[in-house]
Amino acid sequence: MSKKENILIIGAGLCGSLLALRLAQRGYTVHVYESRPDLRTTDIAAGRSINLALSDRGLKAMRLAGVEDKVKPLCIPMYGRLIHDKEGNTFPSNYSGRNGEYINSISRGELNGLLLSEADLYDNLTIHFNKKCISVDIENNVASFYEYETKTEFEVKGDVIFGTDGAGSSLRKSYYLERKFLFSYSQNWLTHGYKELEIPAAKDGKHLISKDYLHIWPRGDYMLIALANLDGSFTVTLFLSYKEGHYNFNNLTTEENITAFFKEQFPDALELIPNITAEFANNPTGPLGTVKCSPWHYKNKTLLMGDAAHAIVPFYGQGMNASFEDVTVFDAILEKHEGDWETIFKAYEKSRKEDTDAIADLAIDNYYEMRDHVANPIFKEKRTLEMAFEKEFPTEYFSKYSMVTFNEDISYSDAMKKGRAQDKAILNMIAGKEINMNSDLKTLLTRVKQETQAILQDDRIAGLK
Amino acid sequence: MSKKENILIIGAGLCGSLLALRLAQRGYTVHVYESRPDLRTTDIAAGRSINLALSDRGLKAMRLAGVEDKVKPLCIPMYGRLIHDKEGNTFPSNYSGRNGEYINSISRGELNGLLLSEADLYDNLTIHFNKKCISVDIENNVASFYEYETKTEFEVKGDVIFGTDGAGSSLRKSYYLERKFLFSYSQNWLTHGYKELEIPAAKDGKHLISKDYLHIWPRGDYMLIALANLDGSFTVTLFLSYKEGHYNFNNLTTEENITAFFKEQFPDALELIPNITAEFANNPTGPLGTVKCSPWHYKNKTLLMGDAAHAIVPFYGQGMNASFEDVTVFDAILEKHEGDWETIFKAYEKSRKEDTDAIADLAIDNYYEMRDHVANPIFKEKRTLEMAFEKEFPTEYFSKYSMVTFNEDISYSDAMKKGRAQDKAILNMIAGKEINMNSDLKTLLTRVKQETQAILQDDRIAGLK
Q1: What range defines the domain where residue B248 resides?
Q2: What global pTM score does this model have?
Q3: Domain count of chain A?
Q4: Which of B20, B126, B233, B436 is the most buried (most CB within 10 A)?
Q5: Cβ contacts of B416 on chain A, cutoff 8 Å
């Protein structure tokens, strides 16, 4: 069943390894080149988040590749957020009013390793580690690599080249620098960066705090989150400004400062992170950026996918899910137009771009919402109302968060448009005292739906998106 | 009155020459390096638009520099658009319902030449032509230049360096490539490009069509515009897709194609452009791009201004006006914090960035509006109503276009927010048959104002901008 085309994939991260697996399943001859060593045999982390939230869009892609059953045991369900206040009190806040809707904490390394091992089962798929892509000659389908072991450079030609080489993509850089076409490109950084820390497991190997939640310490200008790992530890991420505010990454440089900051803002977390000053000093501070670009393809030759095409900030927990969904969407279009790569590439971007733009914008929205709106009373009332809607009318109401996270058949862009209109409707009805939380819930639902439709209609007439 | 700081300005275009003039007026020692020859003694055009629309924000900056009286004779007032249909019929459409509100066609070269000649009057200001900036060492305030005449490179150090070197700015490129800080950057291209053509003057030196209008041939996917020059000619600009649609830049390559296209779409214009096929072949096709970036400054050392910081598409006629307004805004902040460059640079971007982002977005809006909405009946009704409002209540109503173009004391971002809300209010009232054009105009105005405020309030509550 081997097809004649030789596929070259740059990058064996989450998106690249899933894509490789799927193309191998379709019978293509696939070569994947990865800059790092094999993460199944080497301990590497190097500045990328250790665990991630896997939700329904990602799981759908796992099903497509036939690995969902193997992924499930790696998952730790998180049924909601657990909010920690400054006094160490905690407040649960479920992700949905429906039963059975949760997101999963999963180790990036273990999931990636699983996909690589699945890929290894295919004779028509070869993975080459320690080969860093330097550039791509997009006109001639030739990628240049640097081989770390021998310190030499070599070239590889592919009939088609996929760039799944992440936010710092070499293929994307070649688009930018070769100037063969008008390449729209943006990189936008938040004022905040992030740093990972660790809550180790208890001596008996158990988790020191509940593993069933995504833990959040929201503080306006700063935020700490923690996701459980299978070994009993938690990976903690601090989001903090580089240089603004009383505490920031630039001035948290001494043991006293760091401890004072945590003691004041996150006292319960501080007790759980024994090596905080060493970790703070040794672990890298990473930037939070959004990358958008277009076009993703060049002729019938090359295509960007995953973070290489659309890197997003982590505040919606959708980065990995969006990249996996890329493969689901691509696979359906490949099925339809197999044999005509240029048509496939064009149809793929036409179908997919507005959705990856939408999740990028939603993730930015959530950054501001988490910072500025968490303490806003009308936002809290909205949440209460939406949870009640979802509990009472589970097939009739879906919050923006639910549409994005649990409804893999609603596109990101539709979820954004409808979700924003819904939020606007509810917030204004609450602010205008048009909602009495003791009224009949069905009547309230009907009014919210009417108002949502009216908002969408007004925007349409004004020619707004 | 000479100040001790040595100012280095890269680029003596419209923004750079005005900035240089203003800083010389303030007593700084100013050196300006320009890649081109002196346009007062050399005939150059090289891919930039020949004439431009100068309106109130630009004129305010001319007043600040004391040159308004010298600029006025270069202006050809345009009181409105003159729409040309496919049969050659024309329909006037004024820019405002108020008297005395018009925009001006002005030659880029003559205006730039005037600013350079004014600059030459200052002993503390020197302009160096034919020196192309290659890069800037932003840490050490050193710019490297290539000297065309001697074919050598040399370096210049400034206490402060301004990059007014346009959309392809070398200073901006150095920010991007030096990676000394997180540089947010975007370049976004439209699917359309542009090409300039000429309607020559009549034999008696007069204009062949009325010089009192901006002529427009709107055709949805294509558009032709024409602005008058003082010598009796018109500069015509064709906006056309590179590769989409029946006619595009990629397929208009033969004399037959070009003539057929104009004969079908712009027959009256075709008669006025005698050398159309030669001009089509010889004149460059330019791309239409938007550039945004942040931060604009590096420490107390360098600052981007004008197109170097924010290049926009031409569909609002505000590119030059926005760059001139940069100088107005910068001058007021310089006045307040003189002596502390880092504070000046920060305060300037904090004050200015949201406005240049707004005019960039408004210009993109107009691209779609001109293409898609011109033929839309509710948009036409809106225009009629707004003209009536402006005529009857000249101090009470200002359309979005009027706020942007004729109200230099309303910021671009306020004009955008209020103008969009106003448009949305009117369009929805028309679509909902809530407006009877025969009703009392004062009552209608009151209702539009109420609805506009309600829209702004709803957006505020929902946390939208």
Answers
A1: 188-287
A2: 0.94
A3: 3
A4: B20
A5: none
